[in-house]
Amino acid sequence: MERVAVFVDGGNLYHLVHKKLGITEMDFDLDAFVTFLAGTRTVTDKRYYIGTVREKAGDERSRRFVAAQVRYLAQLRNQKWETKTSKLRTRIEELPIDSRVEGYAQLQKAGIKTIRYERLREKGIDVKLSTDLIMGALDGRFDSAILVSSDGDLVPAVDWVRGRFKKKVEYVGFSISDQHDPTRSTKPLLSMIARSDAQRILTAEDLRPFVLPHQAGLGLAA
Predict the structure, then answer these.
(1) What is the DSSP letter of 40?
(2) Is the pTM of this model over 0.90?
(3) 147-178 confidence digits (pLDDT tens)
């Protein structure tokens, strides 16, 4: 029987799927999703990668976020997932006030030329996932890797696994429209489609069975 290992980029899944569906990680049955992807094949590894944040003193929102993430990772471990984490890094970015900003003329008249804001960046997750993908192929832990990520930085590792070790890579991508801003709709990564052995492009309707019942009616527009 074919053996498969599953690699899930948690941050990627959250931004491309959960946010579009209006749910949280806890509202999505990841184990059932993997069972669906694997079918009759034997799952040898389940690996989940996510960036983590530190709690900010006096910040209730960050405290709730950290507590929820700790609970979720504990739940995954209880379901025999191997979790890999990396600290999210804070980065200060500047947005110039120009024609791309609505109402920019009024802002410029008020003397506002730039807006500085804090942004979290995930560092090192793609490296950890790529390393595990290559090491799993080297150790013969799978015949096929199911890759739930649309991060283009993983393409070199996919090429290596397929070319050097002759393992198959199955890409799981998503096509989900954003009703509020169509330009931000989730689309599959073309480079991953071109470089993988098999592709599954799932819509919101395909994902409906994995949303827990109390969330089943929320945000699931294909």
Answers:
(1) T
(2) no
(3) 999 999 999 999 999 999 999 999 999 999 98
Rg (CA), the chain: 19
Helical spans, DSSP H, in the chain: 10-13, 19-21, 30-38, 60-78, 104-109, 125-138, 155-165, 190-195, 204-207
Closest CA to 38 of 77, 1, 86, 83: 1
Q: Which residue has the tokens 């990668």?
A: 49
Residue 164 φ then ψ, to 5°: -80, -40
Q: How confident is the model at residue 119 (pLDDT cuts 50, 70, 90)?
A: low
Task: Tell me which of 3.40.50.1010, 3.40.50.10190, 3.90.550.10, 1.10.3080.10 is the CATH number of domain 3-88+122-215.
Answer: 3.40.50.1010
Tokens of 22: 């209006």
Helix (H) or strand (E) holding 149: none
